[in-house]
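>> received
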Amino acid sequence: MKTLAEIFRWRQKQAEPAVLATVVHVTGSASRHVGARMLVSREGRLAGHISGGCLEKDVLQHAEPLLAGPAASPVLLSYNTESERDRIWGMGMGCQGTVDVLLQRLDQAESIDALWRFRQRRQRCVLATVIRRDGIMDVRLGDSAAISESGEELHAPGLQPLLPQLRALVKSWLDHAGDVWPTGQARPGGVDPLWFALGSGRVQMAFELAVPPVQLVVFGAGPSAPPLTRMAQELGWQVIMADQRHPITIEQYPAAERVIAAPVEHILQELAWDRRSSLQRTAAVVTSHDFVADCHLVPALLALPLPYLGVLGSRRRGAKLLETIAELNPNLQSRANLHTPMGLDLGAETPEEIALAVLAEVQAAMAHASARSLRNLSGPLHRNKLPESTQPEDAAAFMKRGC
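>> returned
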């Protein structure tokens, strides 16, 4: 999400010609998922990465012709890191899969505007992008259609005839997926590309699920709050700083997108969490270290379907807090998302170390990850596909039914 913000700002400025490289399809193991993006100019990489470093050099070389002029056509590059012929990319990197990368001039990449629009509204959307075409010339590689969970659509004119089919697919996937797809992972996921009949030919479209960035709300201007907001911003998260006791300002917390200084009820009102899917990408951490205030704030947060709620303090303080909350709110049930003490066991002592431990735990909760050492895990490191338990109905079969 941080890369998307950088690319959007660069597109707005149009300071110099630039080429956008986007991972549109992945099979097997790869270090980046569908939706990974990199922006390059004649001087080199401007923002983002599309691999662990094995593909960037070759992509830079293929980007040079597109920088020559506005008439340059988009290009689809395919890398097979399992092949002996591609030993230069696969060997030594640990990648065992195939990666398709779409190159297009940034001034032609309308999809960035659509993704940014839905990001700012904190809405999930599915982006369908043309990656191959057969017998059709009025649609180009990179043309796209974005459909949000609210049904709003932004699309290239030539794709208008496909909208009924795309709407049906998107609705099926998002309805099946529930609150976050796939399984709450922070990274975008997708399904295999599909061919669609269009006019006298056909187009193949790749699909990317774009979810809102993690939203971190920090309650309380304690010592850990500044490093929490800074590190979260570096992760590309949307940060909100809130405090009911002290008059805080955006100058004190420049990493925050919003700063709210008001009583708890006003803070929760102003946040206006009105969409469940947005809440499923929201984490709240309480760093005020004010026991009385926490007794009122924490129950209000527990009533929301947040995947992560952390409260700073010792184990004894946390037990006392839960006991008091239970006495004041006997009907309050859910506590599974409550972490107190919060953070992973990293031996943290300083505010910066505590912030690192907390954000690592938040990341694990959002990604439904174990937070164990990768050395002690078996199976693939990178989850590019939907797990079988959450795989939506086969898209090709769905299309054959005429939906």
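>> The chain has three domains: 1-109, 111-212, 215-366.
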